[in-house]
Amino acid sequence: MSNRKPAHLLLVDDDPGLLKLLGMRLTSEGYRVDTAESGQQGLRVLAKERIDLVISDLRMDEMDGMQLFSEIQKVQPGMPVIILTAHGSIPDAVSATQQGVFSFLTKPVDKDALYKAIDEALERTSPANDDQWREAIVTRSPLMLRLLEQAQMVAQSDVSVLINGQSGTGKEILAQAIHNASPRRAKPFVAINCGALPEQLLESELFGHARGAFTGAVSNREGLFQAAEGGTLFLDEIGDMPAPLQVKLLRVLQERKVRPLGSNRDLDINVRIISATHRDLPKAMARGEFREDLFYRLNVVNLKLPTLAERTEDIPLLANYLLRQAADRHKPFVRAFSTDAMKRLMAANWPGNVRQLVNVIEQCVALTSSPVISDALVEQALEGENTALPTFVEARNQFELNYLRKLLQITKGNVTHAARMAGRNRTEFYKLLSRHELDANDFKE
Which residues are the signal sequence here (predicted)? Predict the structure, then answer.
C-alpha cells in the first residue's frame, strides 16, 4: 500500500455485487468507505457524512453519474468525483472532464489506474495549511467565511466558476484567490473586463490575431487564452459580452481550441475559466441577451459575493486594514480612526461596497494631518463619494438608460420613431429597452 492519507470515500453503483467488491478492495487499502446503490441515496450520505471523494458509476437508473455530479456540485462545490463506466468513449471522457469530473475510468477498472486517480484527487483537494491563498480577502463574516470554504474546495478542480456580485464587492479578488489555491497557481492569472472594450477589440484581445487580420494588425499577436496557458482566465462582466462573441466563446469552451482572427489554424488551449457578472444572467437569458448554453458552461459552480452592507461586521476589520495600507504608502504617522469616525463608517450604506470603502479611506489619509482620522473627515469623504466618478461600464449603462428614457419621452413611447432617432433598427432598440428593463408603453400618453 502506498503512503496515502486515510480518506473517506463514497461509492455509488446500482450493481450491489460490484459495489461490495470495490468497497472491500478500497477498505483493505486503508480507506473509510460508504456505499450507495443510487444517486439519491448517495446524496443522503453526503448530507450526513464528511466525504473526501465520490466514485460513481455512469449508467444508473433515475439519476446517472453525470446528473449525480451536477447535484453534488450544487451542495458541495469542488467535491472531486471519479466516474466509472463499462461503456466509455473518448467523447464521453472529454465531455465529463470538461464539465469538472476529476477522472473518467472504463470498467473493468485497472486497480493501479484507480488508485492513481484517487491519490491525485485527494492530493489536489487537500486543504492548504494556511490562509495565504486568500490573504487579500480580510473577513470574519460567517457569510464570507462559508463562501471562502466553498472557493477553496472549488479551486482544487478545473470546474468552471461564475461569481455573482455587485460592483465593488471584490469579484476579481475572489477569482485571484481561487487561482492562488489551485494546482494552476504557478501559471498565469489573466483578467479582462468583457464590457469595457468594443466587440472587435475584445475579440482580438481574447483570441489574438494574425498579421493583416484587420487595419493596424502589422504582426501576429497572441490572445489572452494563449497568455493564460496552463493558468486561469478571468472573464469579468461576462454578462456584457456581445452576442457574436458569446457564440465564439462557447465554441472555445466546447472544443478547447482557439482560432486567432485572420488565421485558419486552431490552437489547443489549457485554461481554467472563472467568470463574473453583476447582472442577473437568467433574466438576461429570458430576454435573449445571453446564451443559455454558454451560461450552463460557465455556471457549473456559482459563488455569490455578499455586499458590504451584508457583512457589516467586517467594516472595522477592513477599515483598519485599509488604513494601515494607505498610511504605509503615504503617511506612516496615521494610526487609527476616532470612535465616532468608526461609528460613521459602520452606519454608512456603502452602495459602492468595498471599492467605495477603499476610496473613502484613501481620501481620509490624504487629507489628515493628525494620527487619528476624525469623524468630520470621514463625513467629508463620504459626501465626496456621492459625486465620485463611476466606472466606465457603470457610466455607459447609466448614459444608455438616461438616453433611452429621454427618447421615449420625446417620442411618447413610439418605438419606431425612437429607434430611427437613435440610428438603430427596431430589433436592436427593443433589445436595448429589454436590457434596461424599460417598457415603451409606460411613456405613452
Answer: none
C-alpha span between 31 and 27 (Å, rounded):
5
How many other C-beta atoms can be found within 10 angstroms of the C-beta atom of residue 434?
A: 16
Q: Are residues 281 and 316 in the same domain?
A: no
* Helix boundaries (H) for 330-444: 339-347, 353-367, 375-385, 392-410, 415-422, 426-435
pLDDT tens digit sequence for 165-215: 999 999 999 999 999 999 898 899 999 999 888 888 898 899 988 877 777
- Give me the mean pLDDT over the 49-77 stretch: 86
Cell output for 425: 433598427
**Same domain membership, residue 229 and residue 330:** no
Buried residues in 14-41 as b, exposed as e (16+ CB within 10 A): beeebbeebbeebeebebebbbbbbbeb
**Count of structural domains, the chain:** 4
Residue 325: inside a domain: yes
| 108 in the same domain as 252 | no
Looking at residue 1, what is its pLDDT? 36
Alpha-carbon gap, residue 64 to 58, rounded angstroms: 6
